[in-house]
Design goal:
Strand order of the largest sheet: 1-7-6-3-4-5-2
Mean pLDDT: 81
Number of strands: 7
Shape: elongated
Radius of gyration: 34 Å
Strand content: 25-35%
Distance between the termini: 71 Å
Number of helices: 3
Structural class: alpha+beta
Largest sheet: 7 strands, mixed
Low-confidence stretches: none
Order of helices and strands: EEEEEEEHHH
Length: about 190
């Protein structure tokens, strides 16, 4: 049985002897047939009769573990020959197998907590506006100090989107974030 691979290109090679016809006017092709469809790969025959047919990666064309028939077709001048035929199967050249040897029944408990304490810094009126706007967005998303560690990616997106529309410089951003943390701590 001939093996074809989904994840690597191959080169089908064979020696061909033709009597009564010219090798230079001959063509070779490989036909891969399943019950549903056929694929054809064209190749070449050199002057010494070496036949080479490149087979591309079949991933996306044929499913793994599929079987069918493969045949070599040679057209010498105006005559058609099928000098070789075989069954084939499709495999992946690289496989990963995992066998789990044991599993622990102990539950791993991991707690992520964020503690904020004694945040004292003067906050300007402009900072308060930004803090208020961001807090409104956080409240709308039901984000509070207790679930902040779970929703940190969402918080990052909210702040990034807000600062995209209302740009803040880095030091100013830090003041606004401290103001937001202070507001969350109070709730």
């Amino acid at each position: 049985m001939y093996k074809l691979f989904t994840d690597k290109a191959e080169l089908f090679e064979c020696d061909i002897k033709i009597e009564g016809a010219s090798l230079s006017n001959s063509k070779a092709r490989l036909v891969v047939e399943t019950n549903d469809y056929s694929l054809m790969f064209n190749g070449s025959i050199n002057s010494s009769g070496k036949c080479k047919i490149p087979i591309k990666k079949l991933k996306g064309l044929i499913d793994e573990n599929l079987k069918g028939n493969i045949r070599l077709e040679v057209i010498a001048e105006d005559t058609y020959f099928t000098p070789w035929e075989s069954e084939f199967e499709i495999e992946a050249s690289k496989k990963v197998t995992v066998e789990v040897k044991s599993q622990s029944n102990k539950k791993v408990i991991k707690e992520n907590k964020i503690e904020v304490s004694n945040v004292n810094q003067e906050v300007s009126k402009k900072d308060i506006d930004h803090v208020t706007n961001i807090m409104k967005l956080l409240v709308r998303e039901n984000i509070n100090l207790n679930n902040l560690h779970l929703k940190k990616n969402r918080v990052n997106k909210i702040v990034a989107t807000y600062t995209k529309h209302k740009p803040l410089n880095e030091s100013y951003k830090k003041q606004v974030i401290k103001g937001v943390l202070k507001s969350l701590y109070k709730k």
